[in-house]
Amino acid sequence: MNDNDRDDDENNNDLNDEPAVTKEIVDDEIDGVKETALVKCDTTAGQFTLSLIKSWAPIGYERAVELFEREFFDNSHFFRVIPNFLVQFGISYTDDKELQRFADSAIKDDPVIHPPIVFDEGVISFAGSGSNSRTSHIFIAYGPSSSLGTMPWETPIGEVVDGMDTLRRLYSGYGDGKPNGLGPEQYKIRSGGKSFMNDKYPKLDYFLHCETRRNEFIDGELITEKDDETNGELVMEDKIKIANVGLRRNAKKIAEGSTISGTTLTAVSMIVFAVGVIFVFKRRQKKATGKNS
Fold first, then answer.
1. The model's pTM
2. pLDDT single digits (tens) 83-100
3. End-to-end distance of the chain based on CA atoms, in angstroms?
4. Do 83 and 18 share a structural domain?
5. Could you tell me the residue range of the domain that residue 33 belongs to?
6. How many domains does the chain have?
7. Which of 98, 122, 167, 193 could join 160 via S-S bond, C-beta 3.0 to 4.6 A?
8. For residues 203 and 59, what is the distance between their CA atoms, to the nearest angstrom?
9. Is residue 242 assigned to a domain?
C-alpha cells in the first residue's frame, strides 16, 4: 500500500518484493529500556487510542511520534477509508513550512523483525511508494490482510488499543481515491487544502486533536511518563492499556503456536498472568482513589 493510491484490490497487489529479515526483536521483551508512545485522538467520529512501539520499527516510530507531538495530523482528513481493508491519513493543512518540509522528507525502511508482526485489526503502518519512501502517510488495518506487510516500507509501528469502533464509524461512502473509487486524489488534497476537502468531500471525517505521551520501561516496569500537558502523569486506565499491548499480543502468539500437548499449559499460564497484572493495576487505582477522596 503506497501513498500514490495503490489499488486496494488485494488480489492485484505485487507480492514479489520480499522484505529482508533480521534478528529477532519482539514487543514483549523485558530486558533493557523499552519505549512506547500512547496517542489519544479526538475526531469527528469519536475518540481512539494508539500505542506506538519503538522495538517494532525504531525509525518509523520516531517519525510517527514526532508528527503526532507536533500536531501535524490535527484537523487533517481520513482521506482513504475502505471497509474491511484500511483507513489512511497523513496529508496535513499546516501553515508551518518547516514542519511540512520535515513531514515530506523520506525516511529509511526499518528492518523487518522476526517473527514479523502479523497485520490484523488495528495494526498501524506507514504507507510508501518504494524503498525508503515513508514520509507522513499512515494507515490502520481494518482486519487481516494478505496484501499488507508485503513491502519493505510496510513495517508495523504499533496498534490501536482503544476506539476501534470509532475508526469503523469513519465515513467510507467515497471509497478509494480516483480512479479506483470516488475518493479524493491525493495531489488535489495537497493543492486545494481543507477548503477543497470541505467543498468536494464534506462527509469525510477528520482529526480534531491528538495528545501524545512517551513511556519508558525497564525490565517491564514503567519508569518514565513524558507528557508536557499533564506533567508526565498517566491515568491508571492508560497504564492498563500500555501493559495490555504486549500481554495481549504475546498471548495471541502463544495461542497460535501452541499444541494440545506440551505448550497448552504455557498458554494458560500467560493468560492468567495477564489477568493478574490487570487486577493489580485496578487495585492500585482503587487505592489511589481512596487516598484522594
1. 0.71
2. 999 999 999 999 999 999
3. 51
4. yes
5. 10-212
6. 2
7. 122
8. 34
9. yes
